[in-house]
Amino acid sequence: MKRRNFLKGVLYGTGATMAIAGGFGTFNKLGSVKAEAIGEDLETTVFSSCEMCRNQCPIAVKVKDGKVVKIDGHPDDAAFGGVICARGNAGPSLLYDPQRIKKPMIRTGERGEGKFKEVSWDEAYTYISDKLYNVKDQYGGEAIALASRKGPHDWFFRSIGKAMGSPNVFSHEATCPMTRSVALDTTFGNEAIAADYANTKYLISIGRNWFEGIHVAQTRAVSKALSNGAKLVVLDPRFSITASKGEWLPIKATTDLAFVMAMANIMIDENLYDKNFISQYTEGFEKWAEEVKDKTPEWAEKETGISKEKIIRITREFAAAKPQAILDFGWRTAYTPNDYQLRRAILIVNMMIGNLEVPGGYYRTKPANFLKDFPDQAVYAKGLGNITQPSFPKASQGRIDGTGVKGTPGQIIPAYDGAVGKIVESILTEEPYPIRAWLVHRFNPYISLTESPRVLEAFKKLDLLVTCDVYMTDTAYFSDVVLPECTYLERSEPIFDMSGLTPKYVIRQAAVPLVYSDTKPYWQIYKELGEKMGIGDYFEFKDMEDYMSQQLRPTGITLDKMKEMGVWTPPGMNAFYVRASDANASLDNVLSNHSKKIEIFSVDVEEATKQGVPKYISHPQPEEGKFRFVQGKVAVHTNAGTANVPILNELMPTNTLWMNPVSCTKLGLKDEDEIVIASGLYEHKGKIKMTEGIRPDTVFCYHGFGRVSPELRRAFGKGINGNHLIPNEIGEVGNTVTSTTFVTVRKA
Ligand code: SF4
């Protein structure tokens, strides 16, 4: 598809200028989706789900003459309303890209030299199997690490590592929302809490950028709230597109917790909080009140750079909208080493207005099994089935990241996610023991982890690095074995549970046959690898049809019906909020912790971090001549994933460094000047974007550029890889910290 035609259906927003002009429009509305005659040809529609980012939006794929010609949003899913974003529209561009990996490959030259030979799948499996068993024999199964983006592939991919006796399986969460997840877990006893943006009346974002870091359902919900008259306040050192839609508060980076604590201080001082909710559902409020006693608006003004009058006014407005108000808990977190305490404080301030399980606040997601304890809803309690596996061997060592160790922050880190940045440390320092083999599935540590040069150093020490991906990513380029996965448009995979205010199941099914015949779906790759390794018992299903049928069995929905519908929600069920009609309803089913209370003070957190309630830590601010370096998302790319996708690369091939004109003038720089950015150990070249949409003490670039794999022929060598500059600092609960680096900038 040519850029001109692509843009007929999709507008995009990449900068503040466009936003000021009212230019956000990253959605494309669906027309008719039934099979229809177009001239002589028949166009059919296959319901599936998008994977251009991790959000898995339900889609309707138009297929003509065996080719995908267009992708729209699923028309019957009310949360998505038949729309998808620009990246979702770019699916065919990825599918038919000749730069995809087409065959399994084994490295023949030095690591990073780019010399590979094409091999058969059997040769690739044999090579991996032999190497993994060598590592296991020499160092133990724990010397094998696995890391991937979180998703339905986990069950298959992780089975390989767990069957080898490794405890070291990781998701990418520590580079993104993990502090939020842990905060939810330690406050409510589970992570399954979501925000009801569509019905809110007052929304405060702390760096959350719904109009560039797009999640179609959530972005639409925020848009709906705004068109219904909700007020939006955005705390961000940068004027993002989201900031352009509300009141922008250009806060000093890393000081958000001061703003949040001052809100609590004001609400207590002025009696603006919901005392009934606090006494009925929470514990530890007195300790929090004590902690914020001196966090006055005057104090917060000095920390944040936001005037005390504004902090007071916004707090009063927020409290006046209770309970239909949301202080947003964020998406990509990891701003500072104590980011986790910021996320907890945000949740506490929300609970101070009693906005749990009511429209316009926060709610526990409602998968089918959750409903069985509610007599009025039990009829909808038809949960998906699990596919059984034999038990995995017990690992002989603990995890390298200390997850689960009592009395340390690791105590509260979920073992499912782990602290992925620790893999690099363990390879390089051999502490607490060495990692010798690393299996990577659709994850690119070189771009996604901080301190990229150190990541490359770590790659070089490994006995085995395997990457399974669609492209020859930067990490794949340094790997020993590269496995070509097919795209989401060519594969079926397990049914997803995407429950929100009602249960919801979504299917992914192949829309077209394999474009490159020697690529495979991940479930087949790991099943075949498992069989080659003699651990096939962990993959007890015939094929994906069999797997999906086993999942659907308890629900009474047939696989054919699911394929036909694409999305299933219980017919006739309305959005379910536990406290909608009874403000004193029990939250025992919503809270999964032992106390059955919302834990403002947490004994576990006190034990793990010595912060039973969140405490403020002041981070240094940039000295004269230095800048705080921050990164963020753009609407037309997905982090490390899409820089080489033809149409998206054409829309935005590179990034620039945003700098305020005042700072540019001081440094003698002008717009588009070539520059060198330096952060102590490392330097990176780039280009200046001079804009008033950023604080003078801060610089910013979009994430995902500066690629080093020459096989990404469109993206190679273009733009700034921000993670090249940021040290691999691991935060309190395992997050890789992204916003505490200072840089200097000079003309190249
Ligand atoms: S947000 Fe966009 S890219 Fe992500 S799954 Fe949805 S449509 Fe696809």
UniProtKB/TrEMBL annotation:
<dbReference type="GO" id="GO:0043546">
    <property type="term" value="F:molybdopterin cofactor binding"/>
</dbReference>
<dbReference type="GO" id="GO:0016491">
    <property type="term" value="F:oxidoreductase activity"/>
</dbReference>
<keyword id="KW-0411">Iron-sulfur</keyword>
<keyword id="KW-0408">Iron</keyword>
<keyword id="KW-0500">Molybdenum</keyword>
<dbReference type="InterPro" id="IPR006657">
    <property type="entry name" value="MoPterin_dinucl-bd_dom"/>
</dbReference>
<dbReference type="InterPro" id="IPR050612">
    <property type="entry name" value="Prok_Mopterin_Oxidored"/>
</dbReference>
<feature type="domain" description="4Fe-4S Mo/W bis-MGD-type">
    <location>
        <begin position="43"/>
        <end position="99"/>
    </location>
</feature>
<keyword id="KW-0560">Oxidoreductase</keyword>
<keyword id="KW-0732">Signal</keyword>
<dbReference type="Pfam" id="PF04879">
    <property type="entry name" value="Molybdop_Fe4S4"/>
</dbReference>
<dbReference type="Pfam" id="PF00384">
    <property type="entry name" value="Molybdopterin"/>
</dbReference>
<dbReference type="Pfam" id="PF01568">
    <property type="entry name" value="Molydop_binding"/>
</dbReference>
<dbReference type="InterPro" id="IPR006655">
    <property type="entry name" value="Mopterin_OxRdtase_prok_CS"/>
</dbReference>
<dbReference type="GO" id="GO:0051539">
    <property type="term" value="F:4 iron, 4 sulfur cluster binding"/>
</dbReference>
<protein>
    <submittedName>
        <fullName>Thiosulfate reductase / polysulfide reductase chain A</fullName>
    </submittedName>
</protein>
<keyword id="KW-0004">4Fe-4S</keyword>
<dbReference type="InterPro" id="IPR009010">
    <property type="entry name" value="Asp_de-COase-like_dom_sf"/>
</dbReference>
<comment type="similarity">
    <text>Belongs to the prokaryotic molybdopterin-containing oxidoreductase family.</text>
</comment>
<dbReference type="GO" id="GO:0046872">
    <property type="term" value="F:metal ion binding"/>
</dbReference>
<dbReference type="InterPro" id="IPR006656">
    <property type="entry name" value="Mopterin_OxRdtase"/>
</dbReference>
<keyword id="KW-0479">Metal-binding</keyword>
<dbReference type="InterPro" id="IPR006963">
    <property type="entry name" value="Mopterin_OxRdtase_4Fe-4S_dom"/>
</dbReference>
